[in-house]
Amino acid sequence: MGVLTGTLVLAVALTGCSSSGGSKESGDLGILDRDDKGTLKIGYFDEQAFYSQYGNAFQAMFPNMTLEVISTEAAANAEDPVAAMEKLIDEQQPDALLLTEEQYAALAKKGKLYDLDAVVKQDNFDLDSYLPSVIELLKARGGGKLYGLSPSFSSQALYYNKDLFDKYGVPYPTNGMSWEDVMQLAKRFPVKKGTAGASLEKVRSDDALYGLTLPVQTTDSFELIRTIGEAKGLLYADRDSKLVTFDTAEWKAVVQSVVDGYKSGSISAPATGNGGGGGGMGGKLMIKGMGGNSTLSFGPDSMRFMSGQSAMSIDDTTLMNMMGVGTNMSVSTNAKGGDDKGGGEAGPGPMGMIDNWDVVSIPSDPAMKDVTGSMKLPNVFAINASGDNLSAAWEFLKYANGDQLAKTSAKSSPTLSSRVAYKTDLGGRNIDAFYTDKVNEQSLLQAETLPAGFANSFAEMAAGQINKAVDGTQTVDEAVKAIQSQGQNLLTKALASEEQA
């Protein structure tokens, strides 16, 4: 989730424990007794937050343990968080770590993390109560093995405004709809007069009514095209063949449908480099909870659905938390985007916020039902493969991912619990919509095998071509051919640079 101020990194090292023995090879890590003594060396972004969320309760379980909290803020905010975390492991040799999904995948590939399969089986740790897709994603990111556990996850759903659907006589969206179905629904809502066929900047007017708005994280006009294509099993580049394959009938159809939506104004077109669109409706959201305050920046599309200016929106639970649903957190907004002092409306949400809304599952392709790739794992607990105190590290992982903490967190955390028994209460709304996503292993494999930086460069280039098609300065065919040609050049150069390094 985006409610934390920085990447969370936790390192645990326990020394001097009388029963911290066990065999790495057999998976028998021994048993950590309540009376064992030792020092628990903890790397975390904030000492107070650690004690609030984990430390106090864990120390009550093992009262003879001495906790030492070490700030990992520098590593979390480093230019290369993976390299920074690898350096931290090598230099400080922690036993357990709280990682981002990207750090987890990279460190597992480098052999830095301990394989949990044997110890999970040995300790009868209950994985059956987890959402299967969470375990599948952990294993997919771990090259087929389980190197970590995640107590929560993030995924997207399709929000819809019932009042707007009723007003214009449009049937409500349903679970399992295709992207084509959703875009057809979006077309049935009237756009602002003069928007259709206008330039990209005019399409992004503040007072337009949109059929569909995109996630606040959307940074460019290519992102929706990539999302729809990957849901269909389409790949735009392949490392083995060293080829970009974008000039195909399948990709062209996706580009055409999205460009048509942007041009008509039925889909909100994001401004390049300004995620969530242009205009003057940006601001900050302060969320109180999770042991502290977190401030999120948001753009116009964060507000358009909330204010009744959009019939549908693709987003994760951030949007529901902004509307004050699902937790007991207090929410305030500063719509002018200035400092966080004043100007906000405390309580359930900003004034004028819609209330008659619900969610259904994010669109997918009928041939790959529920495979969307929207699931993310913001916090993954793992064990250092070269650590000496594996039993202590495993006890901490069991606690941090255990049933009792999941039950407690469900009442105050804005995240989605990986344990399906503790789904967030949405006040009668369809929370199951966030739990249907299946892992898109094909797109994960592409992302992990392509040269570093290529995906971002490709997206930036492709967005520029898409914008020209929306503005009418080139056709969709011309845009697709330009993306194919320039994308191939980018891939060839990226592979050559990688070989020279």
UniProtKB/TrEMBL annotation:
<dbReference type="InterPro" id="IPR050490">
    <property type="entry name" value="Bact_solute-bd_prot1"/>
</dbReference>
<keyword id="KW-0813">Transport</keyword>
<dbReference type="InterPro" id="IPR006059">
    <property type="entry name" value="SBP"/>
</dbReference>
<keyword id="KW-0762">Sugar transport</keyword>
<comment type="similarity">
    <text>Belongs to the bacterial solute-binding protein 1 family.</text>
</comment>
<dbReference type="Pfam" id="PF01547">
    <property type="entry name" value="SBP_bac_1"/>
</dbReference>
<keyword id="KW-0732">Signal</keyword>
<protein>
    <submittedName>
        <fullName>Multiple sugar transport system substrate-binding protein</fullName>
    </submittedName>
</protein>
<dbReference type="GO" id="GO:0030313">
    <property type="term" value="C:cell envelope"/>
</dbReference>
